[in-house]
Amino acid sequence: MKKLKLVSTVLMVAFLLVLSACGTSKTSGEGGKKTLKVVTDAAYAPFEYQDKGEVVGFDIDFINAVAKEAGYKINVKHVGWDPLFVEIKGKTADAAISAITINDKRKQTYDFSVPYFLSTNKIMVPKGSSIKSAADLKDKRVAVQNGTTGQEAVEKLLGVETKNLKKFKDNNLAIMELKGGGADAVVADNTVIEEYVKNNPNDNFVIIEDAAAFEKEFYGLLFPKGSKLKADFDKGIKGIIENGEYAKIYKKWFKVDPDLTDIKAQQ
Ligand code: ARG
């Protein structure tokens, strides 16, 4: 009788152990992982902008799909352009998405995911402007977002010492400067200024392309140096490109199918 009691106690304990093991495996999956903090500068439509207090855009749909594919929960927060680099460097955020160009200078301080979008800088000017190419920017007042590849490109053209470069903390302010007549041109990522021209026909701006002056650029997710997330998110990016989710999101925002040749060649 005593023996029987012992056996049943052992069985009971074993049963409970199995039960609790089931429990932990459930919580350590989706629900148990901590929600990642993703930072952005939501003033760069159509990639990231605020709509009724909510951060939306191609980048936001994209990173949500990537995170889901990689098995992470995320929360995207607008913090601004310069602050997002501070947060990633200081590891107070897990990742950043913000149409961020992958380049060697940034790679010294941060890690990037594989590329997910092809871009280049272009010039936005008022219709009828005498500016027809990058070379024509010489001696003109050019507005850019501070700390962007657009700023770098213009500095190459006008010299770092130039007084004609006007730097703003976000790209919308640079556009406002052009609108108000305080600048002769804006240099920024093609998709952003092309969208602006399309959506604001009354501003009478046009876009000038100069492929010889402005390099091809690729956007990547930004991580703290050595982040363990990179591998999972790279897999997530490749996953949604393969399974068609990327194309779906691309089509939602740009109304056409993506040309994935360049992106895939980079991966
Ligand atoms: N692609 C450019 C860069 O990396 C500009 C990105 C600006 N992004 C933004 N959300 N304001 O420098």
SSE map:
Elements: H1 2-27, E1 36-40, E2 43-44, E3 48-51, E4 54-56, H2 58-70, E5 74-78, H3 81-89, E6 95-96, H4 104-107, E7 110-112, E8 117-126, E9 142-145, H5 149-158, E10 165-168, H6 171-179, E11 185-189, H7 190-199, E12 205-208, E13 216-219, E14 222-224, H8 229-242, H9 245-254, H10 261-266
Parallel strand pairs: 1-5, 1-6, 9-10, 9-11
Antiparallel strand pairs: 2-3, 3-4, 7-14, 8-11, 8-12, 8-13
Helix pairs in contact: 2-8, 2-9
The structure holds arginine.
What can you see in these coordinates?
- The chain has 267 residues and is an alpha/beta fold.
- It has two domains: 26-116 and 220-260, 3-Layer(aba) Sandwich (D-Maltodextrin-Binding Protein, domain 2), CATH 3.40.190.10; 119-216, 3-Layer(aba) Sandwich (D-Maltodextrin-Binding Protein, domain 2), CATH 3.40.190.
- The chain is built from ten helices and 14 strands.
- Strands 8, 9, 10, 11, 12 and 13 form a six-stranded mixed beta sheet that branches. The protein has a three-stranded parallel beta sheet with strand order 5-1-6. The chain has a three-stranded antiparallel beta sheet with strand order 2-3-4.
- The longest helix has 26 residues, at 2-27.
- Arginine binds at residues 41, 43-44, 48, 81, 98-101, 145, 148-149, 171, 189.
